[in-house]
Amino acid sequence: MIIYGHKINQLARSFTKKLNEKINPLGLHSSQWAIVLYLHERKQCTQIQLSRYLNVEAPTITRTLIRMEKSGLVIREEGVDKREKHIKLTEKASGMFGIWKEVENDIQAESIDGIDTNELEVFNRVLEKMMKNLD
């Protein structure tokens, strides 16, 4: 019997390990990369939106954002409600985005080498269905 969740987790760990090896020297960690990607697409969001999107508890997001703020990668600003924080990328992070994205693209290309387009389309549909089933 194939244990799909375990295999998916192992693939994610392998990808994350490789990503960290390449982007850590560039001043970023894989958990921060997920935040950078989300903010790059949306320009800004609240910590709650980020926590929900990443499926991570609020205290974990807060700790990561504090580290990112100290590194000059994000800015956290108070919203109308002082408990609500709005987050956006700094110019430093925006300037590095293309370099970080290129690293991720290279790793992705390596990971899908030898897999044809039809297989990737099926793989993506299956992943989407599995994620929907778990939501």
From TrEMBL:
Task: Cite the HTH marR-type domain residue spans from the record.
Answer: 1-132
- Provide the alphabetized UniProt keywords: DNA-binding, Transcription, Transcription regulation
Which residues fall in a coiled-coil region?
Answer: none
- Entry superkingdom: Bacteria
> Among its keywords, does the record have Ligase?
no
User: InterPro entries given for it?
Assistant: HTH_MarR-typ, WH-like_DNA-bd_sf, WH_DNA-bd_sf
PANTHER family hit by this protein = TRANSCRIPTIONAL REGULATOR, MARR, TRANSCRIPTIONAL REPRESSOR OF EMRAB OPERON
The name this protein goes by in its record: MarR family transcriptional regulator
Organism annotation: Clostridium tanneri
Cite the source lineage. Answer: Bacteria, Bacillati, Bacillota, Clostridia, Eubacteriales
